[in-house]
Amino acid sequence: MAREFTGEGRGMKIISYNLRKNRAVTEIAALAADHEIDVLCLQEAEAVALPAALGELRLVHATERNRLGLAMYVRGDRFETRSAHTFQLKKSLHDRLLAPAHERLLGARLHDRETSRDLVVASFHAAPLTALNSLRRHQIHAALGELRELGPGLPALMVGDYNYPVFKGRLDTEMRDHGYELSLSDKRTYTRYKMFRGHFDFATSAGLDISSVSTLGRGLSDHLPILVSAELRAEQRVPSLV
Predict the structure, then answer these.
(1) What is the pLDDT of residues 129-150, one digit of tens each?
(2) Which of 1, 89, 124, 133 could make a disulfide contact with 160, Cβ separation 3.0–4.6 Å?
(3) 24-51 mean pLDDT
(4) DSSP H or E stretch at residue 138
(5) How far apart are CA 132 and CA 124, in angstroms?
(6) d(CA 181, CA 192)
(7) Is 68 or 194 the better-scoring residue by pLDDT?
(8) 90 contact partners, CB below 8 Å, separation of at least 6
(9) Who contacts 91 (Cβ-Cβ below 8 Å, separation ≥6)?
(10) CB distance 96 to 112 below 8 Å
């Protein structure tokens, strides 16, 4: 499969997929193989049920305190995982009372052997729709702050389920004000409920050029997976989020 990039090295392909309480776990091997991806970021995955490898991809980390949480696979022949951590973010009322989610961010600092550069990639799952957008914005800002600590000044890409169906303009403005870009996919990623149809799954980035974000075909999840194609920009320091 051709990769249409012109920057340093070849581009990266990253898939993000909310497995809907692990129901779609049987689909991840085919997704990884069919799209020749470099990184796979999962949400609502059951860590104990995940395979250690998917072809050339290796499971580098998964949340430990959530039964259904986050996980990340990375192509081992291209990337060296320097560090990987999960982080707690401010909890919603839903988290506190109904289904506690202790960790909503998984970040990894990766060394790209093709470009001899480091970058940070993360899987993110925002608070559910019962929470306010203001809380989700707080979580997004806090998550990006954690990634800056994980890789100060490094390019960063955070993909996942943002649970942010409306008023994305404000979020986009805030991200741009701090040097980050918000990238939506070409089609809606969530269509289960008429009231909440829209782009729930997208990417936030700094120091990378996002050439496309494509919504893939529907599977067993109520979310559709997204495929992000990106490449590192010429080496430069990424500003801190304040």
Answers:
(1) 777 888 889 999 999 999 999 9
(2) 124
(3) 96
(4) helix 133-150
(5) 17
(6) 27
(7) 68
(8) 135, 138, 139, 142
(9) 100, 101, 127
(10) no
Kindly write down the DSSP assignment for every residue of 106-137, as one continuous string: EEEEEEETTTTEEEEEEEEE---TTS-HHHHH
Q: Which of 19, 58, 14, 7 is nearest to 36 (CA)?
A: 14
Short-list 22, 119, 25, CA closest to 69: 22
Could you give the CA distance from residue 22 to residue 65 in angstroms, rounded to a whole number?
Answer: 16
What are the backbone dihedrals phi and psi of residue 84, each rounded to the nearest 5 degrees, phi first? -150, 135
Q: Radius of gyration of the chain from Cα atoms?
A: 16
pLDDT surpasses 90 at 6: no
d(CA 212, CA 167): 22
Banded model confidence at residue 242, pLDDT cuts 50, 70, 90: very low
Q: Which residues pair with 54 in a beta bridge?
A: 57
Range among 69-83, 152-166, 167-181 with highest mean pLDDT value: 69-83
Bridge partners for 46 per DSSP: 68
Q: Are 122 and 159 in contact (CB under 8 A)?
A: yes
Angle between helices 168-177 and 133-150 (to 10 degrees): 30
Q: What is the pLDDT of residue 77?
A: 96
